[in-house]
Every structure is written in C-alpha cells, then in structure tokens.
Amino acid sequence: CLPPTALPARYNISQLEQWLWVEGLQQSGAREVLEPLAQAAQLLQVKKVTEEDAGALCSLCTVLSPQQVLKILRAYTPAVGLEERISPSFISSVEKQLRDQYGEGSSQLLVDTSHLFPVYLPFTTSPLHLDELCIPDTLGLAFL
C-alpha cells in the first residue's frame, strides 16, 4: 500500500514536468529543481522493510543528500492502518549504506532557497497588430 501523501505529490510533480515539456521549457533548468521533490515522493512510495529495500532506496536517491534521505525517513509518519512505522534498524541500515556509498560528505540538509535560476520563455510575435484588437467595453479599458 502506498503512502497517501506521496501519490498526490508525485502526480503534481509529473503534471509540472508535462507542462514544461508542452511549453518547450525542457532546457529551463526547472526540471532539475523538481528532481529532489520527485525523488522524495518516490522514497515515500518504496517498500521500507528489508536490507534489499534499503539498497534500492539508496540507489534511487541520487540527487538527495544522505542527510535529506535520513531526515525524510525519520520524520515520516505513516497513515494509521495503511503502513507500518519505519523501523530504527531499517533507518540504521540506510544510514550505513549511504555512508559507505557517499562517505561523510556534505552535511547540507535544506535546499538553498536564495538560489534563483533563470527561466527562458521563447518570444513569438503575434500576427495581430494592437490596432486590430477589439477590447470589449465591459472590461473598462477604454483608455487603451
């Protein structure tokens, strides 16, 4: 059974990714910013019981830092009756595998919220001229 919070999050992320594709914004850099969110949603969806599950989880989370993965696992509270709580031994197993895989590395937990990335929107000229437009009076834009 999948966690109920992960499904809508993953759906919303896929809708954003689809919109980027439709609008031709694949090269805008927004997809890369969404990737940690997508991986966090996937992390919540995978089975979290055995040693093999821990290995699969570690190989899945390539853009999340080990600290972020562990924080998500420790903070996750499953819905009553839908999933069991993540065991401390599973979290320890993930922590050991991440340490073996990445070493001690960076201790960054949160994303840098001050980072801005440019979004390039393609400009296409309209075949209509402004003097050809008819603006309805109901809009109250007579000054145009």
TrEMBL record:
Protein name stated in the entry: MYO5B protein
SMART domains, sorted: DIL
Tree of life domain: Eukaryota
Pfam family, one: DIL
Gene Ontology molecular-function annotations: GTPase binding
Species lineage: Eukaryota, Metazoa, Chordata, Craniata, Vertebrata
Gene: Myo5b_1
Domain Dilute: 1-100
